[in-house]
Structure formats: C-alpha cells, structure tokens
Hints:
Two copies of one chain form a homodimer. By secondary structure, the first copy, chain A, is an alpha+beta fold. The first copy, chain A, folds into two domains: about 290 residues, Zn peptidases (Aminopeptidase); about 120 residues, 2-Layer Sandwich (Alpha-Beta Plaits). The first copy, chain A, contains 14 helices and 18 strands. Chains A and B meet through strand 9, strand 10, helix 6, helix 7 and helix 9 of A and strand 9, strand 10, helix 6, helix 7 and helix 9 of B. Strand 11 of chain A pairs antiparallel with strand 11 of chain B.
Amino acid sequence: MSLDAVLSRIDDQLPDALTRLQTLLRIPSISTDPAYAADCRAAADWLVADLQSIGIDAQRRDTPGHPMVVGHVPGDGPHLLFYGHYDVQPVDPLELWKTDPFDPQIEDTPKGRVIRARGSSDDKGQLMTFVEACRAWKEVNGTLPCAITFFFEGEEESGSPSLVPFMQENAHELRADLALICDTGMFQSKTPAIVTMLRGMVTEEVTIKGPDVDLHSGFFGGLAANPIHTLSRILAGLHDDIGGVTLPGFYDDIPELTPELRAQWEGLGFDHARFLGDVGLSTPAGEQDRTPLEMVWSRPTAEVNGIWGGYTGAGFKTVLPAEAHAKVSFRLVEGQDPDRIRDAFRAYVTTQLPDDVTAEFHAHGGSRAGIMQTSAPAFEAARRALSNEWPEEAAYVGCGGSIPIAGHFGAVLGMNAMLIGFGKDDDAIHSPNEKYDMESFHKGTRSWARILDALSASSA
Amino acid sequence: MSLDAVLSRIDDQLPDALTRLQTLLRIPSISTDPAYAADCRAAADWLVADLQSIGIDAQRRDTPGHPMVVGHVPGDGPHLLFYGHYDVQPVDPLELWKTDPFDPQIEDTPKGRVIRARGSSDDKGQLMTFVEACRAWKEVNGTLPCAITFFFEGEEESGSPSLVPFMQENAHELRADLALICDTGMFQSKTPAIVTMLRGMVTEEVTIKGPDVDLHSGFFGGLAANPIHTLSRILAGLHDDIGGVTLPGFYDDIPELTPELRAQWEGLGFDHARFLGDVGLSTPAGEQDRTPLEMVWSRPTAEVNGIWGGYTGAGFKTVLPAEAHAKVSFRLVEGQDPDRIRDAFRAYVTTQLPDDVTAEFHAHGGSRAGIMQTSAPAFEAARRALSNEWPEEAAYVGCGGSIPIAGHFGAVLGMNAMLIGFGKDDDAIHSPNEKYDMESFHKGTRSWARILDALSASSA
Lengths: 460, 460
C-alpha cells in the first residue's frame, strides 16, 4: 500500500528534511520590522524554489506588504488548500536567547530532541511538515493524491494587512473544498488535536482625560480630578465578584455547550492545576460557575492587556496626570458580535465618567468567533488518520486564541477550515529560545501523509 | 528713617540687581543630572563671591553631593537664618521652550514685565530678593540690622540628600532664632502670603504579581489571574463615593480647623472655579463635604501618580502581564503619622489580593505635615511688613505641597520657620518657559527690607 511506502520514505528522508528546515530557519524573516523586508522576500523565494523542486507550479506573488507564495497541483478528488506562514516574530530580548535565534541547533533535552530557532514552531517547522509529506508522497507515487493549493503568507505576525485583499483579488484561484491550517498545537502537548472552536476578539484602547496638563499633586491633589482614579474604577467595574463581565448584554445570545461537547471535553481530562502550575498559578480566576476549559475555550472574557499613565520612571514624581490609558481586549464566543461588544464597552465607560473627565476610544480590531463545521466527513476522516499516527486518540478541541485566517477562508472564500498542528505548550513561541520538538516535526509530517491519504479517499 | 532710604536704594539699583540675577540664571545648575555638577559648583562659587561683595563672611561648603553656601553676619537683636536653593529643575522637553532656558530674557507680556529663564522663579530669583535687600541695607546703613546666617542649598530639586546630614554636623553654626524660607508664592498671584501649614507626604510604589511570566490572553484569558485587574480594584477601592479615603484609621487624630482659621480662609475669597478653570477643570473632585481650600490645604489625600503594566506601546499585544505597578502618594495633614499611613495602605492592599496574586512594596519617602507656630510675634510683624508693601493685606495661608526643609529646621535645629515667597501661579516652575515677574523681584526685594526692619525691632 502506497501510504506505508510514503511513511517509510518520510522516516528515511528525515535528516534531509531537517536540513531543509534549518536552511529556511536561517532566514530572519521578521515581518513587523521593515529592516527585514529583503529577508521576508528571500524566505518566500526559498519556498517557491522548494515547491518547484517537488514539481509544484509555485510563484512568489508580491503585495503592498510582504509577498505571498502560491502553488498549485492539479488532481482528482477533493481540492485542498494548505495554509502556513513563513514570517516570524521579532527576537528581542535577544540577551535571553541561549543560542543565535537564526542559527538553528539540534539539541537533546530531558524531554527529547528539539530544533531550537525563531520560527521553528511558529510556523516554519509546522509549514514544512506538510511540504515534506507532499514531497515524500510525490517521490513514492509520482504524483500527489488530489488537487492541492499551497498558500503561504508572510505577514501573519504583523496583522496580515495584505491577506484579505489578496484573497478577494484571487478568490477564483484560491477557492478549494477545504482549507488545512497548520499553526496550532497538541492538546496538553500529547493529544493530537483538531481545533473546532476559536474565540473572536475585540481590541480597544481607551484614553481617559482630566486636566489640560499634568498637575502638581501638592497644589491640586484632593481638588482636581485624577484620570488614573477614573480609569481604575472603570476597569475594576468590568468584572463582578464571581468573575463575570458586567457589560450589559455581554452574554446575550451565547449558546451553552451541547451535552455531547460537554461530555467530550470532560473526557479530555484537562489538568488545569498543571496548566496553571506551569506558569506559577493555581486557581482558575475566571467565571467561578464555569469549568476551566469553558473559561479558556467557550466563554468570553474581558482582559486589560496594558495600562499606563502619570510618572512611571525611576524614583517618584508627584504628578496628577492629564491622561491615563488602557488597552482592553474581549475574547468573543459564538453569538457575540464584535461591533455590539465594542459599543457596549464604550457606552459603559461613558456612563462612568465624573465631571471634568472625558474618554477617547481607538479601535484596534475585531473578529467573530470561529466555529468549524465538524459534521463534514473530512473532519472524522482526519481525526481517525491522526489517531493512527499517535499513541493517543485525536480530539476535537477548542482554542482560546483568535486565528482570524480561519474566519477569512469562510467569509471571503466560503470554505470550511480544519486546524491541525503539532506545537507543544513549552515551544516558547513569541518568546526567547523557541523550539519545535523533533517528534512534532517527524510525526507531524507522517500525520499529514495519513491525512492526505484519508481525505483524498473521502469527499472533503 | 533708614527703611525709606533702603527702599529707595532698592528702586535705584533694580537694573543692577537684574543684571546680577541674569548672571546667576546663565549657570545651568541642574542638580539631578551629574553632567551639570561643575555648573552647580559654579553657581555656589558665584553666590559666595556675591555675598562676599556685600561684606558677608561666606564660604562654599562641600558635601558628598552638591555644595552648600553658608555665610554669616554678626549683629544684635534676633538671629535670622535665610534659606534658598541655587539648583534648578531639568529643562526637558527643551523643544517647548520659546527661548534658551539659560539665556535669561526680559519680556513685556500682557500681564507685565517678566524675567524668563529656568530657575527665575524656582528659586534663584526668589533667593536673590533677600540678597538684594541685604545689599541695599548694607549700602545705606553700613551694616545689617541683625545677625543673619545665609544658607543656600544645591540639591533641593534632587531630594536634598546632603541637607539633613549637613544640618546635623553643623547644628551649632546654623541654629538661629528663626528660619526664613523664600520658595513659595503669593495667594492667587496677588495676595502676599505667609505659609503656615504644609502637607506631609507618604510615597509608595506597589507591584502586583500574578503569573511567573507574561501570558498569551488567548490561551490563558479567562483562566489566569490578571494583575492589572487586581491593581485596578485596589486603586478603585482607595476612595469612597464621596471622595473620602477608605483606609482604616486614615482620618484618626486629624483636627478640625479652628473657627478662627476657618473664618480667615473664608475671607480669602478663594476662586476655585478660576483655579480649576486655568487647567481645564470645573468641579472640586475631592471630599464632597469639604470646601475647596480644605481639599488642598488641610485635608489628606490619596493620589495615584503613576500606573503601568502589560503592553503600552503602539498597536496591540494580547498579553496577560506578570506584573502591574503603581506609584501612590498620600498628602498628610496634622495628626497623621507617615509610618502609620504606609502600614495602613500595605495592610489594605494585602487584604485585597486574590489567590495567586501577591504584592511587593517599595517605600519612596515620608514626611509629616508642617504647622508653623504663628503665635510667635515675628509672624504678625512680618505680616504687617508685607501688607505695607503690597496693595492687598498679607494673609496666613496653607500650602498643599510638602516642603520638607521647614520640617527639618524644626526637627534638626529646633527652629521655627517662616515661609514667604513671591511666586505667581503662572510662573511655570518645573515646566518649559519658567518666568518670574519683575514685580515679584522688585517688590519681593522691598518686602524683605521691610521684614528685616520689622523683625530686627521685634523678638523673633
């Protein structure tokens, strides 16, 4: 059977695959910093050449930002689109890295062998698992099992400004039966997982203004309005005593978990004590009448992500500041409309303002929650394929984060998306000393071979 | 009568006095920046030479920081000590200055002629009013009217680290019957004023700690404790709904105003609408059952002077921060002990901490309120002398700020202090485009001549 031959080929070719990944990891394709624009283009060019080396008709497609890479393989059966991103996060603080972030090292650690470099897990290593699976398949069978479009982005870590316009302009070319996205992780670092639920998000910056200028707290203290006080009251009032969000209408239209999903999640055996213990915490701090998995997957949040105002340097300055600021985000779930939540927040803030104090708002972005249609047969086929590769049965899981790309495939191209990835909780993505487990890279590649085999035989 | 001759002399010599002040203002004696240490020494040397030119036995007295200037004039009658400071605030943001801060300009403005330069009002111009009064007195009478010690500091704008040790080491030399301090202003910019009540202060920095590291608000949001939320609740809880401070025991032992003082303050006709209106405010924001003057002079406060945590740069980062910070100060009044207030704040914060959240405290300083003993005959003598110089009757006033030097004279040297100054509310001390009114300089000098005349005739 050809799948076994492909899996053997993947095993045999692992050292070469690793060499290719290391070559890609050496390119410092930091998308948010204009100084690295040429490196982003170089990474795109490297991917184009690598896809072409497998016989894929691939091209660099320039945009107003960093280029896309698009490749096509015709074929019978379902038409799949695979998405990954070749850009990486900045590396600062550089002094916390034990090795050069762009000189990938293979290290043996107590938890196994790892590839350490910026982008190894997010997302170059994950992206290459799919490419390497296709390469092995092609080498063994002379062709790929179905029509596949490769679609790599270079702006995922900098807000994807070119993504939706590019999708819109090239919709006829990109539209496929199903999008595969490899940018997520395994559940509790060991259970292969298909993400079926993503939270949406509203991000908002608020500036509270008091006096025209910073005042001396000796001459004005006790008489003049202090905008930090107002901001503190506003933020403190966002949550009630049991962790619920107080905005009027915030929980309207949010569905409860189905009994089936609730039972499935209970079966996952989420170890919240360990999850929190790994970061020095012990107690679920959210809605006290919800389970820990609900808190992070299926319940919305209000979080203050940044706050500043007045004197924040060394020593002390007795200033009454003219302004105070906060960055506030809301993770949204099914049923919540980003515009409505933003309006509710702004209305709440406005009602809390005392005399002489005003508020200004700056919207940073908003996206709805993403709910995957797992009833499509491809989902169960992929789940069985994953389960065959790994010691544990694959699970449908939620993800508390917001991955807007999944929603864009639905909204712009009318496609369902399936998120499968092999990252581990300790990969340190976005942090110093990022790594990707060799197991993730090797078994991830094998997983895609199994999934391609399963999906090409099903109707995605 | 000799006083009239002295006043005439002051009038005649005003152009020369102004030239001397401009020379002193050209020296950039910024005490907080080590780059200006030589300039601080140069300012001290200039003052020594200027005092010597009047026949005063003056010397630069080096300290571990910037030098003191001490000069002595023997004499009969009361022994007075005059204090001022020759160091100035930094000038940044330099781009907001209309002229070079160290190239003093004489300008005619709609409100009258001014001397514009850093330090013109705080405190070189004020300091020189006393020196010029002594110079004129000496020139007219050949001697000064009583024993006077001149004591100039060069670290007032950088926390006065050498002041108390110097006072302790030279207590026998510095002790006098009364300290005169010229570093305050006129009430509502027009009423000559003797400050008889200064607020004390406790400054405290608190760090609220949650997780060991910054977390991703997608993966942890809704489950993990957010220290910004805890900090917001703590700060919001510091005040009740009518502006009172909630710390247990905060208002214990605070005396009410005497009926006499309350009547006197009512007679001052404080125009709080104008005072607040000048900075874009309209409503007294403090304790709603107190008058505006009580809010800033005789009632204690809790103010957040700085707050920071999480991501505060451009754009948005969905971080749950490991820490959040605030700088909090309490202005204290008679009866409040700084240590007790600090302890009460720390105890309150500690009771507000949820599971997994801790607090660390850093004390920045503390000083008691200062209450001057106005029953000493010198106060009424000085008040009458001031009233003779200005169109308005001089007033005893409070000051919401904290001027620790007054307390040091009491605590270290056992001396009463009298604070008289001629600054205006719009002098922009500590800000760009600082100025000192020519009226303040001229009539301030004349005021000191009158006060010297009055005090030398009384028993200070």
